[in-house]
Amino acid sequence: MGGSGEEWVDPGHFFNRNPADFTDPVQGALPDCHFISAMASLAWANPYAIAQRTRPIKDPDTFKRGDAVDMIQFYSGTGAAPDNIEVTELLPLIEPGNIYQYARGADPKETWPAVYEKAWVKWFTNDPGDEPDYSKVTGGDPIYDLVSLTGLNPTYKSTQGVSSNDIWQDVRSNCRGSWTFNPMAAWTYASAADAPTPINYGTAGLVAWHVYSILGWVYDQNQEYIVLRNPWGNSPGILNVDNGPWTAFEQIASEFVRTLNLPLNGVFALRADTFQQYYEGYGWVS
Predict the structure, then answer these.
(1) What does DSSP assign to residue 123?
(2) Domain count, the chain
(3) What is the pLDDT of residues 203-243, one digit of tens each?
């Protein structure tokens, strides 16, 4: 890969807290917003699906160094047998300073997003080693990524030919309370010129040709909103958004309630009709 000053380093712990949190995955210098958003969506909907399966390094192993090997499972399709991908927790960081080039955790000492991305790059590029070539990564499909992470069945939806209420109801149908239980994602148009109505991504605070996690829904002052997360961990939308506390809940029990003061860490609530204008499609796995 050859980045200047690059070293393969183990900078922290797979988990600093358990289970995984949806705010953990932050996109780095790869065009893989699709995969980062898929990880965040899964960590939000089913955090215990993000698992660490570790074994010690053995004498016959070809791994050069490190204290342990993690095994991460990916699925080539719905119902497929898992591919067990083994990697160490050594990551390609820029020295000095252990600066992340690619995916990182919001807490830089928590490495599971970077280790998952490393294993996915190895699987995606069919690399047999422990130092996969990240430069081979291209854009992709977040719903397929969710299939690859879960082995579940995909559903794809277009924002055209339906009402904004239809889209909002689709989100609600994948939620318990206001919190998604099926992992969901959405993607914007390649450019504003590709949208069927006049839009401006810059003034909306949204990003063209980009994938966002869908986290749930809001109904406030007779307006329907869809809650989204930018995988950059910042840069929330600013047009027709609902700011303030969002209490996401799975059921009426305190242990399943979480309140976020929006916008927060790239999370924002976008009005459903604006979502329909700026997003080309969305989907989920179940």
Answers:
(1) H
(2) 2
(3) 999 999 999 999 999 999 999 999 999 999 999 999 999 99
